[in-house]
Write a structure and sequence with these properties.
eight-stranded parallel sheet, 16 helices
């Protein structure tokens, strides 16, 4: 099995994105449902194998893409892979989402012997490099590939523990910055790896949500590192970053618009109309169909209405719009629900 153009579309994802970038007509709006581990349940590949076996990573991606024909394939290492490369440990249950075993950094003294990861020499990250090598050959001129590298603050929270990290931002800010520097240098090495395979970069930083840390803490502990990474991505790959931010982000939009972004993907709790009006003239917007209430649990009619409403609102964004879910679709969602989601996009755009 190889990656194949979806028979329901007139254009390939690569053609659609290129045409949209040139201001030409496309057959439908660019669409990115965030799949997560749903690909494992669709393909029958275990979640552990999906994270540790390059051939099975590639196979799971093929099966999902060939069924739905969305407009981007996103590989790891993601937060999880980078945390493990830096020394953290996840538990991979037989049935369920992996979770962190316990904080790796119990004392900041460990930073004295902790160094940024050179991904070319790191076995954990090389699994994803191998998957990229396999799929990049198949995806050429068909669909864009991105390597997800998580977000610096979220990676730090996995290594230290969320509660400890938030406390440390107040009581030990210098140590938190030391940790974030190590993480950012590791992510930069991942960006260099992605560039070798012609890939772009995706980022998601859920713990950097201002509902948790507030805009002042975001400015100090998140913005400079994310800005460094988005700038470095353009320099090394020639592509801008796809950034997803969870939760209520209104208070940090002034920082988000300063990044080099291919899109800012918004949580489903965000008012898409407000985003279009306030920041849609500065960066491309993506979003934000509810992944649980609509995609996982909605009827076909509810999915149709939600997709149409998002496109009608989002297409007014002056810098461009991509249809996406507001976060990852739960892993045990019935695949038929995704069929309805993609069908809704195609039918809506066909009738324009």
């Amino acid at each position: 099995m190889r990656l194949e153009k979806n028979r329901q579309d007139q254009m390939t994802p690569a053609e659609r994105i290129a045409s949209a970038g040139e201001g030409k007509m496309v057959d439908r709006v660019i669409t990115i449902p965030f799949m997560g581990e749903l690909k494992c349940y669709l393909s029958g590949i275990s979640i552990r194998d999906f994270w540790f076996d390059a051939e099975k990573i590639a196979q799971a991606e093929r099966i999902a893409f060939n069924r739905w024909g969305y407009d981007r394939i996103v590989l790891g290492p993601n937060t999880r892979g980078i945390v493990e490369a830096l020394g953290g440990t996840f538990i991979y249950p037989k049935d369920g989402i992996p979770y962190i075993e316990s904080p790796y950094i119990t004392d900041y003294g460990i930073l004295d012997r902790m160094e940024p990861v050179n991904v070319k020499k790191n076995h954990r990250i090389q699994v994803f490099a191998q998957a990229a090598d396999i799929l990049s050959k198949e995806a050429e001129n068909l669909v864009p590939l991105e390597a997800s590298i998580g977000g610096p603050f979220t990676i730090a929270s996995n290594l230290r523990g969320v509660e400890y990290l938030l406390r440390d931002c107040r009581k030990k800010p210098e140590e938190v910055h030391r940790l974030l520097e190590i993480i950012t240098q590791t992510q930069m090495s991942c960006i260099e790896m992605a560039a070798e395979y012609g890939m772009g970069i995706a980022m998601a930083d859920p713990v950097a949500n201002p509902a948790l840390i507030g805009p002042k803490m975001y400015e100090e502990f998140v913005f400079p590192y994310t800005k460094q990474l988005t700038d470095y991505t353009v320099k090394k790959t020639g592509k801008k970053v796809s950034l997803h931010m969870c939760g209520n982000t209104y208070s940090i939009w002034k920082y988000l618009v300063q990044y080099e972004l291919n899109e800012l993907s918004l949580d489903n709790i965000i008012d898409l109309q407000r985003a279009v009006e306030e920041i849609g003239n500065q960066i491309p917007i993506a979003g934000n169909v509810d992944p649980v209430q609509v995609v996982m649990n909605g009827t076909k009619e509810e999915i149709n209405r939600a997709v149409a409403a998002c496109i009608q609102t989002g297409e007014k964004a002056k810098r461009g719009y991509h249809l996406a879910t507001g976060c990852d679709i739960p892993e045990k969602t019935d695949p038929a629900q995704i069929d309805w989601f993609m069908e809704a996009v195609r039918n809506y755009c066909k009738n324009l």
